[in-house]
Amino acid sequence: MALFVIVCKDKPGALETRLATRPVHLDYLNASGLVKAAGPLLDEAGSPIGSLLIIEAEDKAAVQALADNDPYTLAGLFESVEIQGWRVGVGSING
Hints:
Elements: E1 2-10, H1 15-32, E2 35-42, E3 48-57, H2 60-68, H3 71-74, E4 78-86
Antiparallel strand pairs: 1-3, 1-4, 2-3
């Protein structure tokens, strides 16, 4: 298993889409069994403007499938989605 990070940026003006889709998005991530940590990216006022997810999966293809089928993606929330391999340099990711 390898670690990956997904960085998603919301489309401008998409807060309503994010809020409406959030419950099903959270259910999807929790059911996947792949998410080590996740949460919203925030602007200076503390409003969500994107997402950051740390994923443990067999390969990048599994992470891409997770991202492609995320309810946020399916709702058209994101302007961009980037997937990169990642490893812990300081601290730890437990669980």
